[in-house]
Amino acid sequence: MGVYKYIQELWRKKQSDVMRFLLQVHCWQYRQLSALHRAPRPTRPDKARRLGYKTKQGYVIYRIHVRRGGRKRPVPKGATYGKPVHHGVNQLKFARSLQSAAEERAGRHCRALRVLNSYWVGEDSTYKFFEVILIDPFHKAIRRNPDTQWITKPVHKHREIRGLGKGHKFHHTIGGSRRNIFVTSIMVNLHNVHIRYIDGKGELRLLIR
Fold first, then answer.
1. How far is CA 202 from the centre of its chain?
2. Record's Pfam families (predicted)?
3. 135: which strand partners?
4. CB 3.0 to 4.6 Å from 116: which of 47, 130, 133, 163, for a disulfide?
């Protein structure tokens, strides 16, 4: 096995003594830094490479923490001025994951870069820490590489806002809607099939053009 396979096995055993100590030290280090900062190298090189990261010019890693827990409704003094069904303030849950929020904040901070993917690197009682992979679409090393030319097109601006990163649920991104997925993948197309009954017997016959 290669070195990345061993690193992957280490990160799978997060409750081992070694990983518990490493994660504790990493979280202490991340708490001393700003909420969003550039990382010199990926903390999990195996995970970053599986998500598309390369150690070459044009690739950037940003580390960000997102506060855990629910999301309080931003109303003054708890006054919602509405019907009782909408009076909730404190026990509200955010519809998206914290990882998607981290991708969005990184993409908003680095407007000229494209968000490729993100992954989890640690958490404590207050924050969850993620590392976001970003690509410079104007770098020559990216524009001249056939494998990365796709992300330089304008249609891929702010992928993180449209649910195209790891932080979002993938069933929100394929096909546009749940009904469209159902129609295209599960339902049988019978546009070219004629159904008719034979007189007297009631047998069903399918006639295909």
1. 53
2. Ribosomal_L15e
3. 59, 114
4. 133
